[in-house]
Design brief:
Lyase, Ornithine Decarboxylase, Chain A, domain 1, TIM Barrel, 2 domains, 9-stranded mixed beta sheet, 8-stranded parallel beta sheet, 10 helices, 17 strands, 29% helix
Length: 404
């Protein structure tokens, strides 16, 4: 995928974030990134599972490469164009955890398979099975598919065991399709006790996958069973491990947000994981921040920062983490104690300061650089053409291009 030049957050040289980088800029910090890559890869291995991180989180080939180098089995994507972008940048095994619908998208995938991609997608309806069977037969190709098991009231997926088995028979009857296993997504399971509901769903995945296998409907030599987003991966991994699925299937986990983590919804999800699994050490660490500058101090107790919805995800309002003087030392951060983002516009953040001092009377200055924590990294990455990779001294060591 071609990426057009864009001034937003671009650095023509590689200076440090406190001098010479056009702000705001999205930043991934090297040390927590390296920790997260190793931590999740180790977690998957200890549970007898493979890791296929969801690439839609970052759509950053430089991060895909690091995930694969750390031991990832493949990369998960959500769309045919995303799959193409990953393949162009060297990802050969692609798991599209979504239905492949529309002949234009089928053409993209057919081209990928012809080019050597090891590609999987999911199906959940007879109509889609017939469409795929007809198209890929015409292209004289075979498409690997996983049947999706959903939940009532959720999004896609067969709703019960019988629907999955009936669809398995239809896939088996299509010469151009190869049934390669079962797929699910637990993030749509809700209720008064979601953890119990997710474990029950994981066991349902196990039972249905084993039934498909028992009836000889799975054609792939190494069938897959796959689930797991970024919040409940521990429960899915535990059930797959307890079921000893590694004897007949390749269990594949698909968390995406772990690679940079966050300071919001996934920080809380990780705390829940560590409460459920106190044996796990240290946990994931936030690696993604957005650096921006104080733009105005228009009245006592208020700072306007040049940061908005076009720059940072806002599932939750950004969290001020640290502050620096422009051109100052990264070893001398200034306090943001009591700072609170109260409102976010397109390109402005309203920050309530802890003391309503007159503008210019405190230690806050126009031009100060503030590092903000994000919530839901997917919705921060997709705002940027380039991401700065920075070391502990805030020196930019690499510009990582995104492919949205």
């Amino acid at each position: 995928m071609d990426v057009m030049p864009c001034d937003k957050g671009t650095v023509e040289t590689l200076p440090d974030l406190l001098s010479g980088v056009s702000l705001p800029a999205a930043v991934v910090l090297e040390a927590p990134l390296a920790h997260n890559l190793a931590w999740m890869q180790r977690f998957a291995a200890e549970h007898g599972a493979r890791l296929a991180p969801h690439g839609k989180t970052t759509m950053t080939p430089a991060l895909f490469r690091r995930q694969l180098e750390a031991g990832a089995w493949g990369i998960t994507l959500a769309t045919a164009p995303q799959s193409r972008a990953a393949f162009v940048h060297g990802v050969e095994r692609l798991l599209m955890a979504n239905q492949l619908v529309g002949e234009a998208n089928m053409a993209i995938v057919a081209d990928l398979i012809e080019a050597g991609a090891d590609f999987y997608c999911v199906v959940d309806s007879a109509a889609n099975v017939r469409q795929l069977g007809r198209y890929f037969a015409a292209r004289e190709l075979r498409l690997q598919v996983l049947i999706e098991l959903g939940v009532g009231g959720g999004r896609c997926g067969c709703r019960d065991h019988d629907q999955v088995m009936a669809l398995g028979e239809l896939v088996d009857a299509e010469p151009a399709l190869v049934l390669a296993g079962l797929e699910g997504y637990e993030g749509v399971v809700h209720g008064a006790d979601p953890a119990a509901g997710i474990r029950a769903y994981a066991w349902q995945l196990v039972e249905v996958a084993q039934a498909l296998d028992h009836d000889g409907l799975i054609e792939a030599r190494e069938p897959l069973i796959t689930a797991s987003g970024s919040a409940w991966y521990d429960l899915i991994a535990e059930v797959f491990h307890e079921a000893r699925l590694g004897d007949h299937f390749i269990p594949v986990l698909r968390p995406g947000c772990y690679v940079v983590h966050d300071h919001g919804v996934y920080r809380q999800a990780q705390r829940d994981v560590l409460r459920r699994r106190p044996d796990l050490e240290r946990g994931l660490e936030p690696a993604l921040e957005v650096f921006a500058q104080v733009q105005s101090l228009p009245e006592p107790g208020l700072a306007i920062v040049a940061l908005g919805k076009r720059d940072i995800g806002c599932d939750q309002l950004p969290e001020p983490l640290r502050r620096y003087r422009e051109g100052g030392s990264p070893e001398r951060p200034l306090s943001v104690a009591g700072w609170e983002v109260t409102r976010l516009m397109d390109q402005h953040a309203f920050v309530r300061l802890p003391e309503a001092v007159e503008p210019g009377a405190g230690d806050v200055r126009v031009g100060d650089i503030v590092a903000f924590g994000t919530s839901h990294p997917c919705l921060t990455f997709d705002k940027w053409r380039r991401i700065c990779l920075a070391d502990d001294r805030l020196a930019v060591t690499e510009e990582m291009v995104t492919c949205f």
